Amino acid sequence: MTVTGENLQRPSENTVAWIFGQPVTDVPQDLFIPPDALKVVLHSFQGPLDLLLYLIRKQNIDVLDIPMIKITEQYLHYIAQMEAYQFDLAAEYLLMAAVLIEIKSRLLLPQPENTEEGEEADPRAELVRRLLAYEQMKLAAAGLDALPRAGRDFAWA
C-alpha cells in the first residue's frame, strides 16, 4: 500500500487541536472546558533563536543590520505573554532577552577610538553569526524533512 501526499494532513491556521492524528477545526458548542484548560498560543517557536529569527524575517530586516530597539521591544512583549502561561519555558527566552538588552546598551555607549583586535567593533556580530547558523540548520532540517520517509510517506511492500 502506498500513501500519497493527498492522504497526509498538514497543520493549518484553523486547526484547534489534533485528535487521533486528525485536525479539528471547530470546538463543539456543548463541550465543557475548564477555565484554565486552554491557552492561546499565537505561534510556537522551537527556541529563543527561532523567535528572534521570526521577528526579523517578519519585518524583512537584514540580519546583518538588526535595529536592536525595535526587535528587543517586540521580543520582550512576546516573553511577557509567555511568562503568564509557561514560566519554565520562558527562562530560555529571558536569557536571550538579556543578551538583546546587553547588545542594545553596548550600542548606546560611546565607542572607544582605539579598538583592540580581540574585541569586535559591532556587538551584534556574535548574535548575527548565531542567527545565520541557526537559520542554515533550520533550512537543512526542513530539506531533510521534505525527503520521503518510510512509514510516513510510503509503506514498504
Outline:
This protein is mainly alpha-helical. It has 4 helices and 2 strands. A two-stranded antiparallel sheet has the order 1-2.
Strands in their spatial order, largest beta sheet: 1-2
H and E string:
EEHHHH
Helix content: 40-55%
Q: List the total number of helices.
A: 4
Global geometry: flat
Question: What is the residue-averaged pLDDT?
Answer: 76
Oligomer: single chain
Strand coverage percent: under 5%
- Number of β-strand runs: 2
What's the SSE blueprint?
Elements: E1 17-19, E2 22-24, H1 48-58, H2 68-83, H3 87-108, H4 125-146
Antiparallel strand pairs: 1-2
Helix pairs in contact: 1-4, 2-3
List keywords for this structure.
single chain, two-stranded antiparallel sheet, 157 residues, mainly alpha, 4 helices, disordered N terminus
Any overview of this molecule?
The protein is mainly α and 157 residues long. The protein has a domain at 48-108 and 120-146. It is 45% helix and 4% strand. The protein has four helices and two strands, in the order ββαααα. Strands 1-2 form a two-stranded antiparallel ribbon. A hairpin with a 2-residue loop joins strand 1 and strand 2 (22-24). Helix 1 (48-58) packs across helix 4 and helix 2 (68-83) packs antiparallel against helix 3 (87-108). The longest helix has 22 residues, at 87-108. It is flat, with a radius of gyration of 21 Å. It starts with 16 loop residues before the first strand and ends in an 11-residue tail after the last helix. Residues 1-8 have low confidence and may be disordered.
